[in-house]
Amino acid sequence: MSISKLFLACSLALGSLTLCLAPAAQAEVNTVAKKAVKGAKKAAKPSDTGAAPPVSPEDAEEAAEPGVEGSTVVDFDCELGNKITIYQNAGDESFIALRWKKRLHRLKRVGTTTGALRFENKLYGLIWIGIPAKGMLLDSKQNRQLANECRNAEQLKPAVQG
Questions:
Q1: Could you tell me the pTM of the whole model?
Q2: Is the pLDDT of residue 52 over 50?
Q3: Using CA atoms, how far apart are residues 92 and 109, in angstroms rounded to an integer?
Q4: Which of 14, 71, 97, 98 is 20 to 30 Å apart from 123, CA to CA?
Q5: In this structure, what DSSP letter does residue 133 have?
């Protein structure tokens, strides 16, 4: 018997075996998939105790809406009609509250080598960078700018030349 005839015979035998086993294998796959979906639905249901999943203290602090009573308020007008409001307490330069799209976020100051003011909220991926000429808001999770060319009333004044 030649090698090509042997190969053809093995291929036909394997093909017929696959056709015989395919319906049984498909039924088993469907059963396993249905069990997995049921398990996922059970896991997605909230627990009967009503307890929230454990959250780190830092995440809880970043997720909570900050209080802005007694804060200094600075409004920024940005390109494309975007508006940002920053609230800062005089005694605490480590944090700011930033209002963006009707939501108030708490951002923590991060040191820089350039002297720019940089504040971050890692939970939401927000980064505020302030330089003397302008400010910008970035989304670190989607790697894009949310607002650029943000200027407050002081930055909008024409520069005095002397």
A1: 0.60
A2: no
A3: 10
A4: 71
A5: S
